Amino acid sequence: MTAPSRRLTATLLALAFAPAVLAAPEAAELPPEPVVQRLLDSRPAVQRAAAQLRAEEAVARGLVAGPQEWTLRGDVAQRRVEPAPAARDFEWRAGVERPIRSGDKARADVAIGERGVEAAKWMFGDARHETARALMAGWFDWLRAEATLSLRQQADTALRQITDAVRQREALGDAARLERIQAESALAQSQSLTVQAEQTRDASRRSLQQLYPGLPLTLPELPEPAPLDGATDWLASILENSHELGMSRAEADKALALADRSRLDRRPDPTVGLAVAQERGGDERLLVLTLSMPIPGEARREQGNANQARAEAARAQFEDVRLRVQAEALNSVERVQTAVRSWQAAAAAARQANEVAELTAQAQQLGERALADVLLAQRLASETRLQAQLTQIDALEARDRVWLDAHTIWKDED
């Protein structure tokens, strides 16, 4: 085998056995990712979680150092020996002492600090993820409001054309007054819905502008929804990246570490000290080694029992969160497939309703249909178009929500 062939074979083998990486999909209906990342990092909830993480890191460093500190002690006294009242000796004593933490307790404290930092990291990720969810929900609410307003305005335009035509025919004596009233009534109803849609659109825009300053509110080109990639285990990916699940697991691990530390605390820490003293006016000089140790009582044992019960409660809480997150993830994945099928059916219904509206209008011009039939067909066509547009947005949101939960879009840096 030649050298180029060997290099080609090695390259193919490396590609074949390289770990699979979940590529970031295209989401043209979403705002630009660099803008989203900047907005997420600037949100107060994310900044608060970042501060809590820094606090937990400081706590962990303190646990490594330990709470044991040196204590300086000193006293002075005057000795008077009876019955000689003039015999007075100045005496003093000074020393230092410090509790001694055993190696297993030190390791347990380090474990508690590490679990606390891990939980804070998951909490930071959860705050960022929930903020991203809220941003995505607000964005799609705005898209729905814009789509509703646009289609309502299109319906107004169509009904206005019909109404103008009826008025002209009435002026020529070719249409009854009742037909004009019917057309004007339909137009007024449609315009009322348009005003409501405009209010909803304005409210959603204001909400996004207030919550996410700098977010570009440019209407994107909506792609056709597609099912999720069948080659990816989306359920496993969501569970693996679930911040809520990771945070609950870390809290359970921390509670277990605290219970282990309480078990070790049933053996109290000794306090060792060293002191120097002078007695009898300097005739006696002492070097003193001191040792003290608390005698364990009922409160110490019950504190350990309480921490053990808290650890069991945290583990049960983790199992509850795991089951709930798993059920929600499964529903999210299934919702995408259902939403895509719903959009396909709504799009087909919209095409048929448009065709019916066109044919009814042609038949009315030939005198084969009444104006009421045209207005009804136009209203049904407008409603089905709106339904198709909204189900399209719903399907895109359902898919993007799965992508977000699986960390394929808007991924945090850590």
Given helix and strand content, the structural type is alpha+beta
Largest sheet: 4 strands, antiparallel
Order of helices and strands: HHHEEHHHHEEHH
Contiguous runs where pLDDT drops below 50 for at least 5 residues: 3-21
Tell how many strands the DSSP assignment holds: 4
Q: Might you state the CATH topology name of the domain at 44-68 and 103-268 and 308-405?
A: Outer membrane efflux proteins (OEP)
Round the mean pLDDT to the nearest integer and report it: 87
Distance separating the two termini: 44 Å
Please state how the strands of the largest beta sheet are arranged side by side: 1-2-3-4
CATH level-two architecture of the domain at 44-68 and 103-268 and 308-405: Up-down Bundle
Shape: rod-shaped
In CATH, what is the class of the domain at 44-68 and 103-268 and 308-405?
A: Mainly Alpha
Question: Can you give the helix content as a percent range?
Answer: 55-70%
Cα-atom Rg, whole angstroms? 38 Å
Number of helices: 9
Strand composition percent: 5-15%
Could you state the CATH homologous superfamily of the domain at 44-68 and 103-268 and 308-405?
Outer membrane efflux proteins (OEP)
